TrEMBL record, chain A:
Keyword vocabulary terms for this entry: DNA replication, Nucleus
Subunit (UniProt): Component of the GINS complex.
Domain GINS subunit: 106-197
SUPFAM superfamilies: GINS helical bundle-like (SSF158573), PriA/YqbF domain (SSF160059)
Biased composition (Acidic residues): 207-217
Biased composition (Polar residues): 222-232
Entry's Gene Ontology cellular component terms: GINS complex
GO biological process, one term: double-strand break repair via break-induced replication
InterPro entries, A to Z: GINS_A, GINS_bundle-like_dom_sf, GINS_Psf2, PSF2_N
Location in the cell: Nucleus
Similarity section: Belongs to the GINS2/PSF2 family.
Record protein name field: DNA replication complex GINS protein PSF2
UniProtKB/TrEMBL annotation, chain B:
Subcellular location: Nucleus
Cellular component aspect of the GO annotation: GINS complex
Entry's family note: Belongs to the GINS3/PSF3 family.
Name this protein carries in UniProt: DNA replication complex GINS protein PSF3
Highest taxon above the source species: Eukaryota
Keyword Protein transport: no
One GO process term, biological-process aspect: mitotic DNA replication initiation
Keyword terms, alphabetized: DNA replication, Nucleus
TM stretches of this protein: none
Function in brief: The GINS complex plays an essential role in the initiation of DNA replication.
Lineage, broadest ranks: Eukaryota, Fungi, Dikarya, Ascomycota, Saccharomycotina
């Protein structure tokens, strides 16, 4: 492929943003698209003339919006409507000063675990801060500083966790997609090398054993094969 | 580790001290004695790719057809052309230095392809102790690499405060430059990749 290696191995932040923009979010529309079906109406065509048709996604929610009644739409549509001043975005529950304070508290109390934030918390909060700053109940600079705090605490924890890396597995519970993406080149590189070192020490011995057992002790050989398959 | 991996090829050219177990006529040019004979117990430094082959192939059966199936049966009289001795990279002195202070160690001056060579060496001798030491070394150093990769500052305003912050930037850049000089080639690659990744995300957040 002609893509640079970086883009083959991992996602760019913009690609992640694109993915997050496909997530559902709640909005307050400021206009109504739901249409009363008039049975006495003569032309049915009129009914569908100003309806929205989406090729890649269901459009029922879009065509059934009622002013000031919350509906769930995809984030990119919400941002588009917001840009045209046609809706207010309802900030998710975790994106309030209170909830973020709780998350920070959790991070500080649990040195070995991460607080259960949504997988897109960093990206979503950045997008909403930028595109819908007037839709928050809390002052935006306070939210921003809390998000920043959370990010720094979590980064510090990740840095501390690096010394527990090994060649076989890694547990990343509750880390968001951006945080994992940021670490991916580093961690996968180091873990690959650790695996190489591990296999260099262990691998040839197993192979040698198998070759020696070939033909001599079939029973032993099959036993060994079974056990190796189990461990895989 | 692929066939075209330049680092792999360069690591293979590391010099390994070898001790010959046979008289080999005509090979004297290796020790500045053209046309002469290399005698038993001569010690010479040979590149790993050559030494490995000579240390694996059985000298006594070399005259027979290559790829004989009864190589395993003649294992009792197995004598290779030479024995590989521990190279400078893995002498006790270096291993002790690794054990005492893995982080401030100048791995690049020991061997620019330390890990690649270590893996080859571990594979040849199934040296589990060395494997443990090397993976511990990598783990310890990876923490520092990660910290350095993450701590770089990006200037998203190129023109505005370039004059005021140059002094500060220079010292941090200098630190990073000095640090990268002590890295093995593989570590350098990881450092660069990690640094790029951190920088990308910082840039995205600032832009956004």
């Amino acid at each position: 492929m002609s893509l640079p290696k970086k883009l083959q191995d991992t996602f760019s932040p913009k690609e992640l943003q694109f993915m997050v923009e496909n997530e559902p979010i709640k909005i307050f529309p400021r206009f109504t698209t739901r249409q009363r079906i008039n049975k006495h109406s003569d032309d049915i065509l009129d009914l569908y003339s100003n309806r929205w048709k989406m090729i890649t996604m269901p459009d029922t929610a879009l065509n059934n919006m009622v002013a000031m009644q919350s509906t769930t739409v995809t984030l990119w549509i919400a941002l588009l409507l917001k840009q045209q001043n046609k809706c207010n975005i309802i900030a998710p529950e975790w994106l309030t000063c209170k909830a973020l304070d709780r998350a920070i508290q959790f991070e500080q109390n649990n040195t070995r675990r991460f607080s259960p934030l949504p997988w897109d918390w960093l990206i979503l909060s950045e997008i909403l801060f930028k595109k819908a700053p007037d839709d928050f109940h809390d002052p935006i600079h306070e939210l921003r500083s809390r998000i920043q705090d959370l990010r720094e605490i979590r980064q510090l924890k990740v840095a501390k966790g690096i010394k527990y890396m090994n060649e076989s597995h890694l547990q990343l519970d509750n880390l968001s997609i951006l945080e994992i993406n940021e670490l991916r080149p580093f961690i996968s590189g180091i873990m690959d090398k650790l695996k190489e070192i591990h296999l260099a020490a262990v691998g040839p011995e197993i192979e040698g054993d198998k070759e020696e057992n070939d033909g001599e002790e079939i029973f032993n050989g099959t036993l060994r094969n079974d056990s190796s398959r189990q461990s895989l | 580790m692929g066939y075209y991996d330049l680092d792999d090829i360069l690591a293979d050219s590391a010099e390994i001290p070898c001790k010959f177990l046979h008289d080999i006529p005509g090979l004297g040019y290796l020790e500045n004695n053209p046309g002469g004979t290399i005698h038993v117990n001569t010690q010479l430094k040979l590149p790993l790719w050559l030494a490995r082959v000579l240390a694996i192939i059985d000298a006594s059966s070399a005259s027979d057809d290559v790829g004989n199936a009864d190589i395993f049966n003649t294992e009792q009289q197995f004598t290779p052309f030479l024995n590989m001795l521990t190279p400078e990279t893995f002498t006790n002195k270096v291993i002790n230095a690794i054990k005492t202070d893995p982080i401030s160690l100048d791995l690049h001056s020991i061997n620019p392809y330390f890990y690649a060579l270590a893996i080859k060496w571990i594979e040849l001798f199934s040296d589990k102790d060395l494997a443990e030491i090397v993976s511990d070394l990598l783990l310890q150093r990876s923490q520092v690499i990660n910290a350095h990769a993450n701590s770089t500052t990006i200037s998203y305003n190129n023109n505005s405060n370039s004059t005021s912050s140059t002094g500060n930037n220079n010292t941090t850049n200098n630190n990073h430059a000095l640090f990268t000089l002590t890295l093995d080639e593989f570590e350098k690659k990881i450092y660069k990749e990690a640094n790029d990744s951190y920088k990308d995300i910082k840039k995205w957040i600032y832009q956004y």
